[in-house]
## 1
Amino acid sequence: MTKDVAEQGSFLVKDYHDPPSVAFIDAKELTKWSFYRALIAEFIATFLFLYITILTVIDYKSQMDKDSDPCGGVGVLGIAWAFGGMIFILVYCTAGLSGGHINPAVTFALFLARKVSLPRAIMFMVAQCLGAICGVGLVRALHKTYYNSHGGGANELADGYNIGTGLSAEIIGTFVLVYTVFSAIDPKRNARDSHVPVLAPLPIGFAVFMVHLATIPITGTGINPARSFGAAVIYNKDKAWDDQWTFWVGPFTGAAIAAFYHQFILRASAVKALGSFRSTTGHV
């Protein structure tokens, strides 16, 4: 197994056993080029993700205005494909460099599972948010008229839905995504099915696609705090900021639940840890 493949949080881990938990704070990684290369990969990936997806949303809304045709443009189905397809492409491209997180909620979940260190988790989130801001900023710079008149692709709770419904949609949607991520990178699954590391980006992209189909009418679909934050910063309207907390609390809560479910229920990490503790104390 090469050093690059063994990067923290990588989707390409080929070890048949659970990799050891990383250090909570690993000062040594701050001196390695691979750490900063991973940050650059996360920044560029999130930049491209927001540019393509927000541009798809803006162009669809502008096309609707021109044609007054509910079926004009790519439609909600096309928007969902844009988000899911970009995640598939970008995870595939960056998995061996940074793990292909492209989402602070995914990074947070992997941190809780002790697959990335605290400094890496924090720096990844910063890089993702900055990439999102720059990606949306480029959309606004190139398509300013349509951008301002069509909501800037910002996530907002739709009329007719209450906060509880919106928060639940974000929690459950992020749970689906993060649960898929953990399943795709599960070392035991990799041991059984050698093709899974190659296909890992595919189910992750499909998870994003399916969640968007379900939740676009409710919240516009966040499930990615960087996506929601970047759009809110550039659009900078009251409604987008008033609902912003939903797109952080919801995804982080859903990510934490998914991490706990996979690591401590499905993989029984807590039981293994307790067994190891009893075995150790039994020999004292």
## 2
Amino acid sequence: MTVLSTAFLKGLQQTIQDSKAAEFTMKLVPNLLLCLLLVVKLYHTETSDDEEPQPPKGPCANWMGGAPGYPGHNGLPGRDGKDGKDGQKGENGEPGEPGSKGDTGEGGAPGTEGPRGFPGIPGMKGEKGEGAYIYQSAFSVGLTSRAPVPNIPIRFTKIFYNEQNHYDETTGKFRCSLPGLYYFAYHLTVYITDVKVSLYKKDKAVLFTYDQFQKNNVDQASGSVLLHLSVGEEVWLQVYGEEEKENNGVYADNINDSTFTGFLLYPDMDLH
């Protein structure tokens, strides 16, 4: 292809020289240049198709390729990137399973009292319980005769209550069987004459009552006292005076009573 190009150029030069007219030369040159460019382009195209790939140049050009190398070490992690912008709020998820029951919290402050409700249905009657006081001592008696003898115990023979028999109607005296604090009281009807009466404990007067009788009238004389008694001590009432009819107006009939009462309030602690 190189020989052909050289011959062509020589022929072209001879043709130009042989031209006798300048006008002919000016017209022919552009056409010849165009043909030359086409020939050069055709030459380069064939050369690129016919040329074989050249082996790489260097000291290892004629040797086989080596084994692949080991992967390099991992590099250091890069810095954390900047936080992104918050995304749009997602939809609510499905409710989870109920958790275990928590501990009971502290009680709150008491609320205001509500309105009173309707009465409930009465419950069944319970069994009879024991009495609050297992130690009992009591009596209540009345007078049946008029004008008792003075300076001796008044014998109250009308018995209202004497279940424990601690009052002796034959002597008119109460005898203590349970030590403790006792309450005694008397209410006497006064008629015909004045009344002077005293309450005795262990042969000693501890309470006095006097009532002056008003003619054509019926009076009342009374008294009460708390006494601590020991086992065996006695309590009674009696009229005091010098003569049988003096200050002896204590009276009783079918419509008027004179009474004497006593009972145990609190037994001594060593009995429990």
## 3
Amino acid sequence: MATGEDDMIKQAQTIWSMLDELADSNPDGYQKFIEKNLSKGKAETEAAKPWMCVKTRFLKPKKETLYMNICSWARIPKPKTSTDPIAVSAGPVEDEEDETGPYKVVRVAVNPDVLAECAKNAEEQDLLIDLAIKYLKEQKKLHLSQNFQICQNVKFKGDASNLKNFFNTKQKSDQKEDERDKRMENLSKLTPDSLLSRLRVSDDQSESSNNKPEVSLQLNGNEKPKSGLIEEIGNSDEKLNCPEFEVLMREADGKRCRRCVVRISLPDVQSVQECELNIAEEEISLLVPLKYEFHLPLPEAVLEDDSSAKFNSKTSSLTLTMPTKQL
């Protein structure tokens, strides 16, 4: 017999010997131990549950609506203290369609205790949503607006049955889910053999990346966290600098309408070709690879198609002129 199997058998025998001793010396303690661990095991194998649906949108490659389904999932670890960072994980971006037309959805998982705390405070809730969007932008490389809208009276957009297989798409086979459900049916009838079987299953799952939550640990190196509850950690060296800028509102005159003017200082940038600029109705984003990253919510909605951008190579500055929408 293989050494690994020998070790598992010895481990199972040791556990059952300890449980036998506990059952003889302290029957009440034995019963509480079994109930506690069965309850814990059941909670950790339960599917994620819908908590809140948030609407945002892609900025590129094209403007599309994205519904972010924030879910409660016990498999996501909770912070050990109130000042520790929050773990976030996400499933794939999927296409859906209803009577309003096509849209995209993504599942984002957070620990249930964290969500319970956020539900008590609107500011903490907004910070959590900001964190989830930043995770999708940085870890999933999605070009998303930081603006969002909470969907009232809707906890989940799309097919909630996909939560049983959180990290895989709906096209995945349900065979593994069925096998897991059958194993869980016998939790209340544990025997030494069934315990050994569960030890083997646990060992297999630990080697499978598809069954592990993808924990997001990110850092905002440019500012302190707004709250002790929510913090982002990671490698600050990977953060790009935010350039200096100014925002001016120009009133309408005889030739031009009311407009928003943003001037961005970009030292060490030689040409506009180095810049990746996106002007949306409510915000602008700018990326200069390896140098600068800039996101700015606009004070007023603008006409992105009528906006212009001019780069001054002498001053290494970019000037954006954006006509505002007239009320």
## 4
Amino acid sequence: MASRQTFSCYVTALLFSAAIVSAQLSTDFYDETCPDALDIIESAVRAAVSKESRMGASLLRLHFHDCFVNGCDGSVLLDDAPGFTGEKTAQPNKNSLRGFEVVDGIKAQLEDACNQTVSCADILAVAARDSVVALGGPTWDVELGRRDATTASLDDANNDLPAPTSDLGDLIKAFSKKGLSADDMIALSGAHTIGQARCVNFRSRLYNETTLDASLASSLKPRCPRPAGTGDDNTSPLDPSTSYVFDNFYYKNLLRNKGLLHSDQQLFSGGSADAQTTAYASDMAGFFDDFRDAMVKMGGIGVVTGSSGQVRANCRKAN
């Protein structure tokens, strides 16, 4: 009985703690302290995406890679320094993450408008939303008030981010560890309707798997030759149909065995994700609804709020 009561108290404490964090995040957090913050971020994101369409996917990915490693705290933006190793050189991030200069530019404008008020973590959350909208996707109200971490973890970045070789069970487990359901995972995977993947991340699928559409495979091989180390950083679209439009073609492609990554095709491979993937392929509005809800949920992972953390003046280093 005592053990059951202890567990009940533990669960109650967790729910109470979660409620406090949720209450500290709000959609109007900067209305008084930095009223132009959202306009500044949106304008900068639109300019960056207009200059290079791929940047929308890069900014969205930064937010994901931030939240999945010790929460949405801006730690992914920290540069290595003497005595400090950040997350940028982790295997999933090295030679892969992009958009840091865009974030730097946004931060500089915000510092001019309202010194040390808008956190780098919040910049990533808003820029992710604005990137999706700029490419034709859904909008949502971003909850704000995150604070920035002063530390980062290379080990956690190497271990917590789902690998492109993940099977369906691995994906479900990785998202579950962050408080996200299998349904959330399938919806969030739709972010791959934009962006590019490096050859090193799909070479094994291209040459060793039989489930990749033959015509797509033929078109990929010139840019991704078989010898390891050759063309590793050459990129190909995750969605070859509409590479720079946020739509539901990612799921349509999966139904045709055109998932570029092994982890992509796992969402339509005879498993528990098939039904939801099929539904999204024929219902873009349904996908958009679930995606926006999952993004809000993901944006609340492990946030630092209130008097904890800091608002970094420079997103690349702690104050």
